[in-house]
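Continuing the series of single-chain predictions for the mutant panel. This is the parent chain; the variants come on the following pages.
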Amino acid sequence: MSQKVRTKGKGAYVCRRCGRRGRGIIRKYGLYLCRHCFVEVAPSMGWRKYE
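Parent structure:
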């Protein structure tokens, strides 16, 4: 059985780093990273965490 390719909605976007799809994808600024990968990669990209 072939799966339907998502063209719209949350399932259409995948993480560039790990391939995870669905909820938790950060698309702002063209990142296209899941929240888990963003936490790991953000410091090397120049993002800082403010408390």
